[in-house]
């Protein structure tokens, strides 16, 4: 009889523990599902208990905040790069159209080649930064951002005598 009572007590305690764990893990799973679906605003609720679940929830929320910030930075840098590259690419296109119509001479063609080389140098600098970061794991290190990259492109152009191909400021 006592063995049966112990077995029932263990079963009931196991059921209560499983229910408690399911209750505490459900918000974490719901947040993970929301983030997986693209909702980066969703966070794990943190209770006032201050237990290990709350510590894990707070850590997950900090991580999600950091990821959301990095994604915002990526969107901003992408937008800045697209904006700053539009003008020189448009200039090149217009000059190529004029070349097609026979309106440009050898000097203008050489200038076009220089402008394309400067843009390639800018993209190569971006790729070098990404490769160095990947190889050395510089997580949390601040990079020069779009303005620094544009300044680097302007510097390359200045060495080639092509200042004016890319504007040196981000609007």
Write a structural description:
By secondary structure, this protein is mainly alpha-helical. Helix content is 76%, strand content 0%. It has four helices and no strands. The protein has helices at residues 2-36, 52-100, 106-136, 145-159. Helix 2 runs antiparallel to helix 3, helix 2 packs parallel to helix 4 and helix 3 (106-136) crosses helix 4. The protein is rod-shaped, with a radius of gyration of 29 Å. The protein starts with a helix and ends in a 12-residue tail after the last helix. The model is unreliable at 160-171 (pLDDT under 50).
Distance between the termini: 82 Å
Helix content: over 70%
Shape: rod-shaped
Radius of gyration: 29 Å
Poorly predicted ranges (pLDDT <50, ≥5 residues)?
160-171
What's the mean pLDDT score? Answer: 79
Indicate the structural class. mainly alpha
Q: Total number of helical segments?
A: 4
Q: Element order, helices and strands?
A: HHHH
Strand content: under 5%
Biggest sheet, in brief? none
Number of strands: 0
């Amino acid at each position: 009889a006592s063995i049966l009572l112990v077995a029932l007590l263990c079963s009931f305690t196991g059921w209560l523990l499983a229910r408690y764990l399911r209750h505490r893990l459900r918000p974490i799973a719901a947040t993970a599902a929301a983030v997986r679906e693209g909702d980066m605003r969703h966070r794990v609720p943190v209770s006032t208990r201050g237990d290990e679940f709350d510590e894990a929830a707070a850590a997950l929320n900090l991580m999600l905040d950091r990821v959301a910030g990095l994604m915002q930075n990526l969107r901003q840098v992408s937008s800045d790069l697209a904006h700053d590259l539009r003008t020189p690419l448009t200039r090149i296109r217009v000059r190529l159209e004029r070349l097609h119509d026979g309106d440009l001479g050898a000097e203008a063609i050489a200038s076009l080649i220089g402008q394309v080389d400067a843009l390639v140098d800018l993209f190569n600098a971006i790729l070098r930064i990404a490769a160095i970061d990947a190889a050395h794991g510089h997580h949390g290190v601040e990079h020069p951002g779009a303005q620094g990259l544009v300044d680097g492109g302007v510097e390359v152009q200045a060495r080639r005598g092509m200042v004016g191909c890319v504007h040196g400021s981000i609007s």
